[in-house]
Amino acid sequence: MRCPFCNRDNTRVVDSRPVEESNSIRRRRMCDHCGKRFTTYEKVETIPLTVMKKDKSREQYDRSKIEAGIVRACYKRPIPVDAIEALIDKIESRIFHLEEREIPSTMIGELAMEGLEELDAVAYVRFASVYREFKDVNTFMEELQRFLKK
Predict the structure, then answer these.
(1) Which of 6, 22, 70, 128 is least enclosed, having the fewest CB within 10 Å?
(2) C-alpha span between 61 and 51 (Å, rounded)
(3) What is the pTM of this model?
């Protein structure tokens, strides 16, 4: 592993531990040349996953798409970054534990809505408005009523 500070190859692992709710390992490293420390994450490589979209097209699974949607829904909300990351890790973990090679995008959307519902009501409604493609105010109000009855 190259040091990000001096670009030398001689770094060593000082500490190593698994990351909760994730298939990754956090490694604390130290450069033998410059003495600086840095953290790396190793992620277990999984089977390639294909997402079947609503229009029946297929594309490679991309974590950043889930992340972008959830971050957008949580914009300017008092939600810690760690909570957002934990939610994304939880969604990803549930997807990969299915051990399917192909999953519908609707399943990912529903998992995201479940998690946001527990995390923050406003973020949930924001995500739902895009995900459920509300056509008018009445459809939006129906979703709000459903949410408030829980």
Answers:
(1) 6
(2) 6
(3) 0.68
